[in-house]
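Entry 12.
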Amino acid sequence: MANEVAAIIELIEGGVPIRMTVDDGTAVPKGTLMEVTDDRIAVATAADNDEFIGIAASEKVKSDGKTTLDLWTKGIFDLRSTGATAVGERVSIKDENEIAKVAAADILFSNVGIALETCVGAEIIAVYVGGIN
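Predicted 3D structure (C-alpha cells):
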C-alpha cells in the first residue's frame, strides 16, 4: 500500500467489528481503511469520498480462500491526514488510507470520524472512528 495503515490506539467496546464480504483474490493488510460497495462488499479505500465502512481487523492474504473480513467500526486510531485539521473537526476519506478535514462537497457516508489532534500538514493524527458522525 502506498500509505500507512491505521494503527490502534484504543478499541472502544472491542472495536464493534462487523463482518463484510471481500474478494478472495485481494490482499488486505490489517489496519486498511475500507469502503463499502454494492452487495455489502468491502474494498480498500482508493479515492476522495469513498464510502467508509470500517478498518480491517486482520490481514487478508490474496487467494487464501477467505471471502469475509471483520472490520472495526469504533475506536481511536492513528490515521494519516493529508492537510490541516483542527481538534474536533470531522474527517473523511481522501485517498488510499488517507483522511482530511471534511469539505462541504464531501458526502456524509465518507465521514471517518473526529480528529483528536491538530495537524498543519500531512501527518499522523489520532481520530475517533465511530464517533458522532
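Annotation: The two ends are 27 Å apart (CA to CA). The chain has a mean pLDDT of 91.
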